[in-house]
Every structure is written in structure tokens, then in C-alpha cells.
Amino acid sequence: MSTSTADAVVPYDEVIAEFDPVLGLEVHVELGTNTKMFCGCPTEFGAEPNTQVCPVCLGLPGSMPAVNATAVESAIRIGLALNCKIATWCRFARKNYFYPDMPKNFQTSQYDEPICYDGYLDVDVETDEGMKTFRVGIERAHMEEDTGKTSHQGGATGRIHGADYSLVDYNRAGIPLIEIVTKTIEGTGKYAPEVARAYVTALREILRGLGVSDVKMEQGSLRCDANVSLRPSPDAKLGTRTETKNVNSLRSIERAVRYEMTRQAAVLRAGGTIIQETRHWHEDTGITTSGREKSDAEDYRYFPEPDLVPIAPDPAWVEKLRSELPENPAVYQARLQAAWGISDFDMMAVVRSGALDLVAETVALGADQAAARKWWVGELTRIANDRAVELTELPITPADVARVEALVGEGALNDKLARQVIEGVLAGEGSPDEVVAARGLAVVSDDGPLLEAIDAALAESPDVAEKIRSGKVAAAGAIVGAVMKATRGQADAGRVRELLLERLGVSE
Amino acid sequence: MTSELISLTAAETASKVASGEVSAVEVANAHLDRIGAVDERVHAFLYVDREGALAAADAVDKARAAGEQLSPLAGVPLALKDVMTQKGIPTTCGSKILEGWRPPYDATVTARLKAAGVVILGKTNMDEFAMGSSTEHSAYGPTHNPWDLDRIPGGSGGGSAAAVAAFEAPLAIGTDTGGSIRQPAAVTGTVGVKPTYGAVSRYGLVALASSLDQAGPCSRTVLDAALLQSVIAGHDPMDSTSVTDPVPDVVGAALRADVKGLKIGIVRELGGEGYQAGVRQRFDEAVTILEGLGAEIVEVSCPHFPYALAAYYLILPSECSSNLAKFDGVRFGIRVGEGDGDPSIEQVMGRTRAAGFGDETIRRIMLGTYALSAGYYDAYYGQAQKVRTLIQRDFAAAFAQADVLISPTAPTTAFKLGEKLDDPLAMYLNDVATIPANLAGIPGMSLPVGLAPEDGLPVGLQIMAPALADDRLYNVGAALEAALLQTWGHPILQEAPSL
Ligand SMILES: [Zn+2]
């Protein structure tokens, strides 16, 4: 049983001074096919447990798999987008191990004959010397089926050991997965955490662009395992690695890699050895804890799946798929950056926050690019982080943001009111216009109520009024503030100041 | 009336039902009565579905009365090997571990039988998960050979073969992984066919060794087997390993029955030493008959056949160890040891498997688990696959010289119950002549060619043809069958002692 006792860590700059990090990233992507990998069951998320099952995905005696052709097509398109070679002939294999979330006690996967292999993905990272491109090699991308989902009831740990009983939902069993495995990523130096994040970010954009998955990390449709090891220098042999699981957001990938580097450095510095094991990332405490030991001796007894025929994609079909690939996200980004006329640094901020499509859509709906970026990359990213959800999961659309900006442009809202409208939309109070109406949020443009509020404020602070009259115009701020407060921010502060000075017969 | 109805062939029964001479319900009742009379001694059935059978028969009679076109086997009773799922009907595979399990779906074979109006009488006994050559490895007790109740009916499909031999059903479904249709046919004096691998869907056939398993017909005549194969064969999208080629005209071939000018190859490696004298004698006589019918007899050599048994006993256990992993007490079948202490899931799985599987099953799971282990895979499973390729090449070379190949089906006639139970290797040797066809995926048929003089028990002859040329089996088999029938003057099963 693991506890959340923090291990010793070494400050990051000392880790970098003493060690060279090496990464390996394994990303599992749930494909967005309508049916499962080997049967006709629907794949929709969130159904009642064990309602989307059949003899095949329950592994009932006698049942047999049949390959989902759409999943094969998606796998090939992913491989092509990642510059991979596509196998002309490959097979599925059985990965044998006993676990109650595996209906057959083996997983139908691919082993030594993946459908896609030997590709790469270039990712950009902001370094001390400016933007730098790192090439991440892709070892393979292969097809497999997801397992069921277990939840362990009772006991303290939420893990199978110590639980009173376990429930298994096989709705997820058999959902098509693509596992994308990088080659070892070397030469990143201190930017290892940033490269890891940039890779998953870029990969996610590609997958989104291909339309093969909804790539929602928090729902588990994109899952990342990070292999991290340290060695004394780039020419030393590879150190023992750990595999960190449960990394459910882009931000936590960066954090988990950084943490694991600092933890391993402390172990090595103290003369210890790294244990090859699975570690679990804890988003709340920002640390990893030991899971099960994972030695190379773990034996899955792989052998070719005899219930399925080999897959031999027609080369002409593969070329057709290649010719129909959507625009590469890197090209797409460069195009948008030029159109918006912003710096590399500002563009990185958009990409890193996962807001590229949202900003682009908001701009397409008429908003100014700077305003669109301000909302999505600033305010809304902060709120998403606070709520620990993806930006796309916030209950607000590019259309909402564009409408708020349009109201600001018309002078119907000021910046402060606009924030309140966004807040209302996020709180589920309706569209921006509905929030404005319901909360009575509109810039007060009639001078009458403003003059009343000014007179009231002056009456409350006669000493301040006197100061202003005597020429200390700087003191006007206090009265303007009081008026804004009295009108709940709905006044135009500039107009209030004008009226105030006029009232007191003072000029700037 | 009853004895007449049960002695009819499937073809005769179907034609009498179609003409209205007898009703399907009468036919079903006659067989259910026969089962009631003899099965306590034969023990061919693990489950008899009296209600379901009569309902299916009634549906055929109603369809006929309504003037509907009946399919060629409508109203014919059939015994289904208990390895094939049938919705709502207990399916045990001869194992304790599946006790009480009623599958929620029909195997494709079952569905096709139902659609053809075939009347399924019940489920037949078998060696546990189809592992064995005697049906003694059934968790529910052995089946007895109708020719001599102290002898084995062959295996794993001893129940299906015995049911046909004992006139409890004119047809049965068997499955053949290394001879489980053909060897029981040989020792019970019946006909059994393992079609080309992939000719019949495996969907709903509880897998033993996926790359070897094949379902096929058991019957008393070659024509009946052909009629049954044409009902169950054909591509199935649920089994992607099932072949997409058109089903060969096996019924036409069985009716043609003409071997004139055909080249028939005798496989040198399948015969001679290790084969019982009476088996060799009846085989040689059959060769003479075929020659007399105008066939050209040639001798062919398949030099890698001596390695077939060893390769088979690596491939089969390997696939079996994985296929049988799902039997863990979590989702179906029995669950053992849950209340004993506070066991972990691994302990419950382990206890369920230890209690639910028999010795032979455990032996093969352990062999296979070992053979697939890292560091051993290449030496065992990998090497066995290479032998498999060599055997396929042997067959290819042999079929370049001959249209079909023949051999004795089994080295001996039926042995005594218990005789080889403690000697797995001796038991495995029973399948030495049938295993090569499974390794190569080609079709094979066994048909009776007489009784061994020394023990008066049936001898089977095996015919093998190239993949997808199942029709050749039926052509040659039917010609030989007709000639033998003429020699004997009556079907061989008439010589069996009455039960
Ligand atoms: Zn399903």
C-alpha cells in the first residue's frame, strides 16, 4: 500500500547540473468510433454501467472478435500524420494477464507487428535562446482494446488490495485504443518537462485535427504515461526508468516529469538506486507515489491472435488517406499567427493553454484577436485551472465570448461588467444577453442618475469635496470610486469624472 | 414404427417429413424415446432438451402444413456437441467450471441449424474443453461405445459419435482440433468430417485451439454428412477467419460417387508399424476396392509428419492456455472459495480454476503457459509453427501427385475404458494420423471400412483433400461407401450388438 508521504527531492537547477534526463512517453487515445474495436457495441461515454456490452466484449465462451474497419483507418491516419511508416502486413497479438477488468484475461493488442512505426513529431519549446524545435521520434502506434473500468469499494486506498469488493463496468471494455509510443527522448536537458508537455499538446492538436478522438484528458480519452530516467551525462548509459501514470492534464505532464526528476535525483545523490516501477501522479499534492513494481521479467506471453486474420492495408488506400489528411497543425498555427500578427511568445501562450481552436473560432465570429486571446488564454484558462478541467470543458463557447466582446465594442459593457457577464455564463445563467438582462448589467449612460450619485457622494465626504474645489484634482478619484460603487460598476468612470469636475467648477 | 424411424438416414427422414409421410414431431418423439431407452448406458447426452426439440419439430410441421418450402434437413433430429453455444441451454464443454452456465446467444452453427428446421435434441458429452481421445476426461463421466459398452467411443466428440452410432440421432455436430470428429467416427463405425479450416464459422464454438478448431458433421452415411455440411458451412462476418470462398457442392459430389481416373495417394508415414493388424487389413482391402472402381493408387511421402504430434502438442496447449484464461469465476460458471477466509480476487480465481478444471486441462494449460513464456517462445511455439509450415509443404507436394490422400483414421480400434487414462502419451498417439490435417487446415473424412477380425470392432479410413476441395472427400467417400455396402449387404451398424 502506498501513502502520500513525500519523498526527498533535489532543487531543479541542481538536478540539471548533475544529471541528464531521458524521457519516453506513451499516449493512449480512445478513438471516437461509433462502435467498439471488435464488436458492434456503442462507445458512448457515460451510459449506465454494463449496458453497452455483448458476448464479444464480455469475453463470453465461444465469442470471437471482428476488427472495426474504421478503427484501422483511424490508426493509419494517425500514423501518417505522425510521419510513420505503415505496415503492409501486421497482426494482432494477445497480451495475457489475469485481471478482473479484462473479460478474456488477455488483451487483444499488437506486439511486434504494429500497424504504424518509425515516425516523428517536431515540437517547439520556448528556451533561454528563444524558440527551439525538438524532434520527438515515434517508435510505434498500434491498435488495441480498452479494458473495463474497475472501482474498488471499501478499504482505505481505493485500490484493489484492501478493498471490500470491486465493481467492474465493461462498457469501456473493447473501446478502440491507439497507443502511441515515443522513442527515447534525449538531448532536452533542462527543458525535459516542457518538451513532454509540448509533445502531448502537439499530439493532441493533431488528433483533434484528424477528428479521430475527442482527446479529453479528464475523461480519459487521452491518457499519458511518462517514463523518466536520469543519467550522469548524455554519454552515460541509460538509467533505470519509472513509469508515471494518472497524468490527466497537460499541466500535470510537465509537473509530473519535473517532480520525478527531482525525486530520482535525490535517490541517486543519496547513493540509492531507482526501482523500475509504476508510479502514480497526485494532482493535488504534486507528487508521485510508488505503484506496483514493473520488472522486465513481467511476462505477458504474447502470441499472434489466432481469432483474427492479419491486416494488410492496400498501399493505394494508404496513399489516398495520406492525400486526404487535414492541414498539419504546425502549418495551421503559422497561418493563424501571421493573420493575427502576434509574436512567437504570444502564439506559444495560446497553444500551450490549448486555446488555439477556441481563439480562432472566437476571432472568426468577429472578435478582435487580442480580446479573444485575453479571455481564453488569461481569464478562462485561469478559471479552468482552478476548476481542474480542460478549457473546452468550461460551459462557455467561442460564440459567447464573441458576443461579450461585441457588447463591449458597442459600449454597452465595460471591462468590469464584461467579466461579470462571463461569470454569469459560466454559472449557467444563460447566454451573455440573458445574463445582462437578468443581472441588470448595462453601462449607465444617462447623466441624471450619475449626478444624483455624485451629489450623494459629495455630501458624504465634504472634506474631499473641499480639497477638489481647492484645486487638488487628484482627490477626485475617491469620489469617482464611491460613485462607481454606488452604481455597482455600471457607470462609465470617465464620464463620472467629467461631471464631477463640472459640478465643482474645477478644470483639469 | 419407432425402430423404423430411428434407423432412417437423415436424407430419408427429411424426404418423409417433406412428403408428409411422417411428422417431424413423430420423428423427434421416436428419437427422444430411444434416448430414454439407451442413454443411461451409452451416456452420449449431457442434456436433453425435450421441450425445445418438440417445439422445433412442431414448427416444421406447421410450416409444412402452411405450404412453406422446407429446407433439405427440416425435421431431422440432431445432437449438438456441448462445446457449441445454444441460447438458454446449458453449455458445459464437459467441464465442472461451466456448470450451470446458460449462454445468452446461439453459435452461428446453432443459428443455421435452427434456421434450416433441424431439430436439436440436446447436448452431447465430450472430453473437457475437447481435450482427449476417449471422452473419459468429461467431468460428467465417460460415454460408452455402443459396440462395446466397456470401450471408449473416441474423443473428444465421443458423445456425438456414440449418439449417431446408437441411433439416438441420425446427425450430430462435432468439432475437430486434432481428430475429435474423425477418430470417434472411426471407432464407432460412423462417418465424420472435419471441413477445411474456416469452412464453418467458429463463432459460438468454445475455443480450444483457435487455429486448429473446426466444426463439422457426424452421421451414418456420407450423403447425410454432405447435407449437414451444406447447412452449416459458409462465411460468417462474426468469424473473420471463416473463408469467403463459395461453399463447394458437397452434396453433388456425394451423389456423383465416381473415382474413375482419380489419383489416390497412400501416405507412407501414416500406416505400417504401430497400426493394429486388423486396421491395416481393412485399410488394404479398401484400397483394393478403390482400385477396382477405377482409381489410380500412388504412394506419397510426407517426411515431416513424424514431427506433427510434437508440434501439435505445443501449438494446442499454447492457444488453449490463453483461450481458457477467461474461466475465472468472475462473470460465469462456478465460483469457488469466496467465503473461505478473506480471499483476494487472485485467490478466488485460482481456487475456481483448481476446482473447476480436470487434470488433463490443467496439464495442457501448464504446458502452454510454459511454451509461451519469454525466453521459451521461440524454442517451442515458434519452432512448432515452423514445423506446421513444413507439414503444409508436405501436403502441397503430395497433392501435386494425388487428388486425395488416404490413411487409416486411427492406429487401433476402440480401446477399453481406463486403459490409457494414466498414460497421456499413449492417449495422444491415437491422433497421430488425424493431426496433420488440422495443422495444415485441410479437410478430412473418416468412414467405416469394416470390422477388425481380431476384435470385431469398427475400423475407419481417412480421406484428405486440399483446402477448399471438401467435395473430393464426399465423392471418394460415397464411392467407397457404396462399394462396401454392396459387399456387406447392409449398413455396418447393423452388426453392432443391440442395446
Ligand atoms: Zn460488445
Question: How does this structure look, described?
Answer:
The complex is a heterodimer of chains A (508) and B (499). Chain A has helices at residues 12-18, 69-81, 192-210, 250-269, 315-323, 329-340, 344-352, 356-364, 369-387, 398-409, 415-426, 432-439, 447-460, 462-469, 476-486, 493-504; strands at 20-30, 85-86, 93-96, 106-109, 116-127, 130-145, 149-153, 165-169, 176-182, 222-231, 242-247, 277-282, 287-293, 303-304. By secondary structure, chain A is α+β, with helices and mostly antiparallel strands. Chain B has a domain at 2-257 and 443-488: Amidase signature (AS) domain (Amidase signature (AS) enzymes). Chain B is built from 17 helices and 11 strands. In chain B, strands 1-3-2-4-6-5-10-11-9-7-8 form an 11-stranded mixed sheet, with helices on both faces. In chain B, strand 2, helix 5 (108-115) and strand 3 form a beta-alpha-beta unit. The longest helix of chain B is centred in the C-terminal third of the chain and has 24 residues, at 378-401. The complex binds zinc ion.
Q: Outline of this structure?
A:
Chain A has helices at 12-18, 69-81, 192-210, 250-269, 315-323, 329-340, 344-352, 356-364, 369-387, 398-409, 415-426, 432-439, 447-460, 462-469, 476-486, 493-504, and strands at residues 20-30, 85-86, 93-96, 106-109, 116-127, 130-145, 149-153, 165-169, 176-182, 222-231, 242-247, 277-282, 287-293, 303-304. With 508 residues, chain A is α+β, with helices and mostly antiparallel strands.
Salient structural properties:
heterodimer; A: 508 residues; alpha+beta; Arc Repressor Mutant, subunit A; 3 domains; 9-stranded mixed β-sheet; 3-stranded antiparallel β-sheet; 16 helices; 38% helix; B: 499 residues; alpha/beta; Amidase signature (AS) enzymes; 11-stranded mixed β-sheet; globular; binds zinc ion
